[in-house]
Write a structure and sequence with these properties.
Layout: E1 6-9, E2 21-25, H1 36-49, E3 58-62, H2 66-78, E4 81-87, H3 92-100, E5 104-108, H4 110-123, E6 128-129, H5 143-153, E7 159-163, H6 168-177, E8 181-187, E9 217-221, E10 231-234, E11 237-240, H7 243-256, E12 263-266, E13 272-273
Parallel strand pairs: 2-12, 3-4, 3-6, 4-5, 7-8, 7-12, 8-9
Antiparallel strand pairs: 1-2, 10-11, 11-13
Helix pairs in contact: 1-2, 2-3, 5-6
């Protein structure tokens, strides 16, 4: 299981005071380049232990980015074949990275990606569907990250705050940390942030069980509320931040308004030092 580096954010842009502290982890420094390493490495280990895969088995998935990268990395490491269906809109460099690690990659229009993936599964009955989107048990693979965060903070985790895709990482990390509050940060209507969604406006179909009831609080963020800086200061040095973590930090500021002595863990998908 990847062991993440936990850091404290000391950026003046957050205007922290009254004993409030904010921590995060450098998931971009994982072997696969994101926090999805926790889920992918953990699930692949489980599939081997349960006998569902052996060396040479095929694992397949639909992914627009970070899960695909982690799957390609760990399948190669464990001697598995990896088949990925990705949108045609992904960067050519991502496709090149995936194929360089031995993955078979199909680029599809979004309107056809799931039907074509289902056809592939029918043609390859031995392929194991990774199923990150709808297998909510996969959140258990993030428990260790939450436990690491709580141990580093050394006291109660007041809130676990993060953006939402499938919801696995946010809810699983919160469970592991035994966070007192679980807070989702979501884009307001009209604001598009890659890789995250507004869970009321953007649904993943009939099997999508994630909803407002899964969180203690939802913070809806406008473009004007998002952090402008592309790097922030931590106790381990400067860290680059993308749009999804800027969304998270806006949620952190909203949550801390009027509060004191809070220990916050802000979930970032791929933070790394610059």
């Amino acid at each position: 299981m990847p062991r993440s580096r936990i850091v404290e954010i000391v950026a003046p842009e957050l205007n922290l005071r009254d004993g409030n502290r904010v921590f995060t982890s450098l998931e971009g420094e994982n072997p696969g380049g994101s926090m999805k390493d926790h889920m992918v490495e953990g699930e692949i280990s489980y599939l081997f232990e349960s006998g569902r895969v052996v060396k040479g088995s095929i694992i397949s998935e639909v992914s627009a980015g970070s899960t695909a990268v982690s799957l390609a990395h760990y399948c190669k490491e464990r001697g598995l074949r990896c088949t990925l269906f990705v949108p045609k809109t992904v960067m050519p460099s991502l496709v090149e990275s995936l194929t360089s690690q031995g993955a078979e990659v199909f680029q599809e229009d979004m309107s056809n990606i799931y039907p074509n993936y289902e056809k592939f599964l029918l043609d390859q009955p031995g392929s194991v569907r990774f199923d990150q989107l709808f297998d909510f048990q996969k959140r258990r693979h993030y428990h260790f990250l939450g436990q690491q965060a709580a141990a580093h903070i050394g006291g109660p985790v007041s809130a676990l705050i993060g953006a939402v895709g499938t919801g696995h990482s946010l809810l699983g990390t919160a469970e592991g940390a035994k966070a007192q509050w679980v807070v989702s940060t979501e884009p307001q209507a009209g604001l598009a942030v890659s890789g995250v969604r507004n869970i009321e406006l953007n649904r993943y179909g009939e099997r999508d069980e994630l909803g407002p009831q899964d969180f203690n609080q939802r913070v809806l963020v406008s473009k004007e509320q998002m952090l402008v800086a592309d790097v922030i200061k931590t106790d381990a040095g400067m860290v680059s931040v993308g749009s999804s973590f800027k969304l998270v930090l806006a949620g952190v500021q909203h949550f801390l308004h009027g509060k004191s002595q809070q220990n916050i863990f802000a979930l970032g998908a791929s933070l790394k030092r610059v």
